[in-house]
Amino acid sequence: MAGLSSYQLSNVKYAMKNLLETPVAILELDQFERNLVKLQRYLDAHGIANRPHIKTHKIPEIARMQIEHGAVGITCQKLGEAEVMADAGITDIFLPYNILGEQKLARLVALTKRVKMSVTADSAVTVHGLSAAMQHAGLELETLVEFDTGAQRCGVQTPAAAAELARLIAHSPGLHFGGLMTFPCNANTDPFVLAVRELLHPDGIAVQRISGGGTARMWHAHEHKTITEYRSGMYIYGDRNTLINNAMSLDEIAFKVICTVVSRPTADRGILDGGSKTFSSDASLKDGHGLILEYPEARFYGMSEEHGHVDFSACPARPQIGERVTVIPNHCCPVSNLFNEIIGVRSEQVEQVWRVAARGLLT
Amino acid sequence: MAGLSSYQLSNVKYAMKNLLETPVAILELDQFERNLVKLQRYLDAHGIANRPHIKTHKIPEIARMQIEHGAVGITCQKLGEAEVMADAGITDIFLPYNILGEQKLARLVALTKRVKMSVTADSAVTVHGLSAAMQHAGLELETLVEFDTGAQRCGVQTPAAAAELARLIAHSPGLHFGGLMTFPCNANTDPFVLAVRELLHPDGIAVQRISGGGTARMWHAHEHKTITEYRSGMYIYGDRNTLINNAMSLDEIAFKVICTVVSRPTADRGILDGGSKTFSSDASLKDGHGLILEYPEARFYGMSEEHGHVDFSACPARPQIGERVTVIPNHCCPVSNLFNEIIGVRSEQVEQVWRVAARGLLT
Lengths: 363, 363
Fold this sequence. Notes:
2 copies of one chain form a homodimer. Helices cover 29% and strands 24% of the residues of chain A. The first copy, chain A, contains 11 helices and 17 strands. Chain A has helices spanning 6-9, 29-45, 60-68, 79-87, 102-114, 124-137, 159-170, 189-200, 240-244, 276-279, 332-336; strands at residues 24-28, 49-50, 74-75, 92-95, 116-121, 141-146, 175-181, 209-213, 229-231, 255-263, 269-272, 290-292, 299-304, 307-311, 324-329, 341-346, 349-355. In chain A, strand 6, helix 7 (159-170) and strand 7 form a beta-alpha-beta unit. Mean pLDDT of chain A is 95; it is low at 1-9.
């Protein structure tokens, strides 16, 4: 528990879960451990490598558990996260991000010297920067081409552009072409990959590693015949999104936020002690900010920074002031990112306090 | 810079602002200092006490500057914030929150022993808890009644309910009735206060302290004749909301986030290295997630966790990959809450690195 302030420790001096001060983010360890196993077994059964995305938890201890359960390595989204995870003994890190600029390239070189790194690029600018840095350091970095399957974020737009960038990588000193990466996996994925393979065949450039991802459709990973590895973040925690997407059942959701009802200003309205600085303002679901387990008919309709605004009018009973409620957030990733620590509980007892060590490392 | 990790320090080893790694949150110190002075002078001129809300910055050094400039004390929203600020030498702290539960009341007692605390209540449950804790500790706590002027968050609904709760406070051992508190100030504020005063007049209970707040209408504070103190958070930083509300001009915005364009997947689209974990998903403005100063016609239309999605189609020129852009976020409070440190710059040079010491202290 080194590194926790006295305020944070005040959360954990009581061993019973129901004495934790609120708002508190808890992880139900029995279910969390079942979640760790379930996706690993599924991917193993289909010969797909599991490369979990640590953006969900940002906790080195959990990353190590994922590796112990059979993950080939992890996925990070920022250099700072990769540095924390390398410090924690993770030896295979995929950073599917365009790394640009002298300082970031120097940090990537330092990481590549100590762990097996791989990255993505979607432009010649990124490839030239990576190549110059790695060549200068006498290293060789596995570089994948990111392609866009419809998310309209990063990624080359056509198989021809992907093939052109793959050729550039293959011929760039300090780099070797690793394959292709996309998010999310959908009906466009296999045709795109096959088209790139065909375009690169005459060049003798193999397209080996195909990295797909997305928790919403994780149980469909095997339907994408070209995928060789899968990146899911949320499978260990779960949230209202994974529930609505039928990716996880209600029983499988292991990550919850306990709040206290601090005000009942009207007969229908209740105010929780967690708002947008607890639940984030993630807008992925339009019908409320979370599911309140004790009052499933309640509508968590609004938030200010430190207050949650709930309409209990549809509920047969209403909560008392001071009552605790358990919330499944819409999206667990930005929520765990707002907490300094996550409390692991088993049989209503606190068993673990994990510091969210890689949170806030935005560069 | 104690407490900063090596990753965080990598941000500041370059003295020039334009060498800071992105995404980075900067505070332009010349303007920040002018903002500190401007609201203080305005409130002084109208005989209204300035009690800034530290939720915006969560930085003890800035709280101390606000006191040095004439603030009577500060406002915190959580006990954890108040504890950090008390540790930093702030001696007058208002916590306008219903404090409930044994552990939180014990922490409030500990705070009340060392600094001048005041709190709010909007229910008899809260008042009974405060009274029992303070009486047991031999303390007397100034307690205000929160009333609802239309924000529909916490707060009693009618002047009669406010008067009843004020009487309960006045007669509760360990407490004394301080006055009334609301957010935001609007046309309902004065009539509500005057009605409560009239109701309490026969009881001989004075309604002295009237605490109003809200940055959007801070320059109208003096129009509310009953207000004796004002709580603003954002006046020191500014954001796209304060700009749109005409509470601050573009030149007065001191808080900005510098990002790098990491991808240009199409002719129109540009991707920044900051997404919802940098800018939050604050939905207070519907037309985009921030104003890009170098490309004011650009539309910051989407975000994933670590990528910002920008449409540059309306811009006369488009950015290159690797180019840096300066973003004024929609709402500065949840943004500064996502960073571990804020970088103070003057004349393009780094002058300060302030740790956001009270962030993540949700209880």
